[in-house]
Design brief:
CATH topology: Multidrug-efflux Transporter Regulator, Chain: A, Domain 2
CATH class: Mainly Alpha
Oligomer: single chain
Strand order of the largest sheet: 1-3-2
Length: 101
């Protein structure tokens, strides 16, 4: 039985397309966010597994949706393990709003 497609590592171009971004943005983010560490093949190709895709989605949300600076997004991700962060509250409120619609 083959592994589910959602758990397969994505090449940088595939990951960028899934996030509706350009590949160079992902390469730049890799230099700015230490927690973003794609797998490297022997030939140097970047592969993004499910955990790394989650990090990319979080970065995109913080930068594009919440309007944080790179430094602010980095700090939020580093502090993100604390319960009750503003991001978690925001996510919960959006879920409640969807239920009410």
């Amino acid at each position: 039985m083959t592994e589910s497609l959602e758990h397969q590592p994505l090449k940088i171009g595939q990951a960028a397309r899934e996030l509706n971004l350009k590949s160079y943005v992902l390469r730049f983010w890799e230099s700015e966010f230490p927690m973003l560490k794609p797998i490297r093949t022997k030939s140097g190709q970047r592969l993004y597994g499910p955990e790394q895709m989650d990090v990319l989605r979080q970065i995109k949300t913080l930068l594009y949706d919440e309007g944080l600076t790179i430094e602010g997004a980095r700090k939020r991700l580093e502090d993100g393990d604390r319960p009750g962060t503003l991001s978690e509250i925001h996510t919960e409120l959006r879920a409640i709003l969807k239920l009410l619609e």
